[in-house]
Amino acid sequence: GFHSETEVIRFERLEINPKLSETTGFAVGEHAISILRRRKVDGKFSILDWDLFLEKYSEGLTPEHAKISTYDYLEDTLGL
């Protein structure tokens, strides 16, 4: 097995601009949560993960959820 840790580098609310809309397909003006995390596996940083969640589908999401498991929160708590 291996040991892994997750560090939340950035957790912020943003408004979808035209460039992000083109990349994501999200509507311009919608609000989203942007999360940047880096993961350390066996003491070495090995993964940089950037997620963008529409705010209307991720209500209540916190940096603590992002550190432990964003998807557990979205699936188990919000039922997505």
Short overview:
The protein is 26% helix and 42% strand. With 80 residues, the chain is an alpha+beta fold. The protein has a single domain (4-77), classed as 3-Layer(aba) Sandwich (Chorismate lyase).
What does this structure look like?
This is UTRA domain-containing protein. Residues 1-79 form the UbiC transcription regulator-associated domain. It comes from Klebsiella pneumoniae. One of its GO terms (biological process) is regulation of DNA-templated transcription. There is one protein chain. By secondary structure, this protein is α+β, with helices and mostly antiparallel strands. It has one domain (4-77): Chorismate lyase-like (Chorismate lyase), CATH 3.40.1410.10. The protein is built from three helices and three strands, in the order E-H-E-E-H-H. The chain has a three-stranded antiparallel β-sheet. The longest helix has 8 residues, at 70-77. The model has no long low-confidence stretch (mean pLDDT 95).
Key attributes of the depicted protein:
alpha+beta, Chorismate lyase, globular, 80 residues, three-stranded antiparallel beta sheet
